[in-house]
Specification:
single chain, alpha/beta, Rossmann fold, 9-stranded mixed β-sheet, 20% strand, Starch_synth_cat_dom, glycogen biosynthesis, Glycogen synthase
Length: 478
Amino acid sequence: MKVLMVASECAPFVKTGGLADVAGALPGALAPLGVEVKTVLPAYPALFPLLAKGKEVASFGDLPGGPGRLVEVQAEGLTLLLLDAPQLFDRPGAPYTGADGKDWPDNHRRFGALAQAAARISFDGLDGWVPDVLHAHDWQAGLAPVYLKQDGRTPPKSVITIHNIAFQGRFGPHVMGDLQLRSDWFHPGGLEYYGDVSFLKAGLVYADHITTVSPTYAREILTPQFGMGLDGVLAGRASDLTGILNGIDLEAWNPKSDPALTATYGLKRLGAKAKNRATLAERLGLDPDHDGPLFCVISRLTLQKGLDALAGALPALVAGGGQLALLGSGEPELEQAFRDAAARFPGKVGVEIGYDEALSHLMQGGSDAILIPSRFEPCGLTQLYGLRYGTLPVVARTGGLADTVIDANHAALAAGVATGFVFDDVSVTGIEGAIARAIAAHANRDLWKQMQAAAMRQPVGWESSARDYVQMYETLCA
């Protein structure tokens, strides 16, 4: 089985969120199951060093936005097909935005070119390598199934994965010509979306199959509450929609060997977490002698993540005997709210605005619990890291959070399978209640260790999900 993946980011090369982690880890998980993956990825400046090490395997003179070429290179265990189009991707800033934080005005051309390059090689192949399936990820790759269908030749099968339906790649109707799209497909049953073009909707309409990143999220996005305006489109394709849970890279996230930790540990050496906590306390200015639980947050600071409600719950967290360590960036008012909390509760709340990969590992290794009060969460990865590191998740009951964390209710505790704390009401009051439950459980050290052991034994890798992907590919091709 040969699969051509199309993604706008891929860990460890370029990352803004969970999409990159999936694009970076899934090919390696599929390889032992007989699936050979090549990944089409934009050649951003961070990837320029790889271009010199690779081999040009295709060139295009007329992509949306101008010419480009594909350079194949092996890196970090992946086979990458880098789309080298400097006029589109040689820019400072993040993958989708400039230094001012605003979207690049030609993002439709940038990611239209990515999708079209992938579609073209899906037909023509590369040195005899022809994919059985084109697998597009999120809106940035959403036009790839469209280009397959409008080519006229018999296309390979196509799949699109929704990592977050809130991001839809919406542009005015004037982009149709730029993108070389069929004008007669601009209608509500095709590319048109409330007068605009939506890359994500296009992929949902024209792909042969749709997946998303957890079973619960697959059900949620069929409803107006979570479908973000696309629930009607998805309801029409419900029989072609599958929820497959994300996994994590067990090599990169392993408390027994993590180089970012002050002290590595496993189930039999959980006491070593205290050394990581001491390092974390020094880094963030927290009281090192504090006896209550240390909660962490590693997140984009947005309303989606429920962090406005968490900010309101911090006085109760501190009064109850907890500490908080936060790493993240996002909406300015939320950044300021947590800075203010750190000033108000010195030694109890420590905040670092920004992102630091090594610090995120240390926070998992040194904290007792991780807070994820999301209003919606397609899958979530930080709770999986928390389970792996014995850092018990405190999560809202939504999406992949609901699928991966077993609440510490009476029955689960009696059976010894509870792995965290799940709550329904994403409000100050609801979060305060969940935090209070966690603080009470932490006071019973034997119970806490029992929950840590259950969490660390829970499978969080890609094995099961990779098998689900293979089954989906095989069914599609059959």
